[in-house]
Each structure stands twice: as C-alpha cells, then as structure tokens.
Amino acid sequence: MNKPTMNDYYKVEIGISPASSDFCDLAVDLLAAIGFETFVPYEDRPGEGITAYVPAPLYTPEAVAEALDGLKPFAEATFEAEFVEGRDWNAEWEKNYFRPILVEGVVAVHSSFHTDIPTAKYDITIDPKMAFGTGHHATTSLMMRALLAAGVEGKSVIDMGTGSGILAILAAMLGANPVTGIEIDAFAEANARDNVALNLADTNAVKIIGGDASALASVGYEADFFLANINRNVITADIGRYAAVTRKGGVLVVSGFYVADRDIVAEAARSAGFEFVAADETDNWSSMTFRKS
Length: 293
What we know:
four-stranded antiparallel sheet, seven-stranded mixed sheet, alpha/beta, 14 strands
C-alpha cells in the first residue's frame, strides 16, 4: 500500500460498555485530542457506540487504545478499524449522506454539485468534505431553528466549534454583525473558510478563527448570541469561557447532547451565570437556550 495521505481515512467502529451517552461523549473528547475529526453516534442504538473517522497518517491502534483507556474504570471500549482510501469526499457525501434539505421551510441546504435544490428564502451551499455540519444532523437543524427564531439582525454572534461554518453563515445571512466562527480542527477550519466564500459576497462578514475555547480571547467583542453545537463534556467544561465573552442579557444556545443530559448542562450553565430560557428536541437530541444574568 502506498504511503497514506491526509485524504485517506480510517473508519473506526467503537463499542462502549456499559452503554451510555455520557461515555460516548467522553470517547469523542478523547479521540478528538489525537486527531479524529468526524463522529457519528449509533442513533439506532443510543449510547452503545460511535463511528469515528481520522486521517490515515494520524492513526495507530496503539494511540486509539491509549486514548480509550481514559474511559476506565467506568467503561470499556472495543474498536475495529477499516482503511478508507482517499476519494472525492463531496461525491461520497452526495452518494451516501448529503441530499438537499429544507429547514423550517425557509433555509435550503445543499452542495455545489446538487441540481435538485429547493427554493427558499435563505440558500446555503455547503461542500462538507469531512467537516461536521451539513444541516442533516438533528443538532445542526435544532441550532438553525433557534437562530431563525432569535432575531439576530444587527446582533453580534460567536459560533464555537463552527465545523462547516453553516451556523455562522446563516447568522450572517440573517443580518448578524459581527460574526465569528471558531474551529479546533484545521481541516474543518479550512472547509469553513471555503463555505463562507461560497455563500457570502462579503467574505469578511464571517471571521473564522482556528483554536479551542482559548481562542475566544482574540474575538475582540462580546456576543449578543453565543452558539455552541459541540458535545456535552466540552460545553460543560468551557461554559465559563463562553460566559466571559457573552454580554449581560446575551443569549447562549447549545446543542450536541441528548435530552437525558439536560440537567447536567443546565447546572453548568447556572453555575456560569446563565438562566434557562427554553429547550427543544429532535430524535432524542436536544438544544437548550439560556440568557446571561
């Protein structure tokens, strides 16, 4: 086999015992720290495991085993890896996953290679490559629904963990200004920049920054609306930093966790100075909205 490239991937099936959405979230955090960039939970068997993808040059079974040891002594993880040769990932998404969709009747999400595009007030082109966030996952749709209802025109927005950039792009289309997206994964960060250029005539309408929550210090403004569609563990760990850059009276919208996790997220938000406003859900996935006291 030729030397693997960053366009080659390993698809890793990870089983979690005992089954728990909490342990799956922790596994995601542990694997993201060693370069995994895309995660798909077993939606038909919640909590039993995840499918994870990592660029082939970053994969070793020893590194995965060591990372998953972080679940012990609370849970055990097993994994099987399959090499996936590099290909046209946009075509792969079109073939297997990504179809044009209509969100709330007003936002069409599609790729540049689609032709069967629904007519909508807001038209968003996402060429996802391997970045998360095409609008198809329930959590992305929940966040888009919250944005549409929020009234962000003229408001400042920060989108933490922007992925493909879809939420930041929609915020800008809705009239938010300024808008900043932050993404820890370098490939997703580049993809977000590409998608901003595909959708917005003024590419400065959305600023994309690479990094984790520490990058919030470089944003340069307080958010009227702070968005975080990540996962429960990252949100609860970093929510204090979210609060620090959200103006008094500002709104925090979070997703990436199950309905069963709401109490944990709500307690972390309360401790950071946020008051609960509302919750929404689709297919057992939840979003929650808070206001800074």
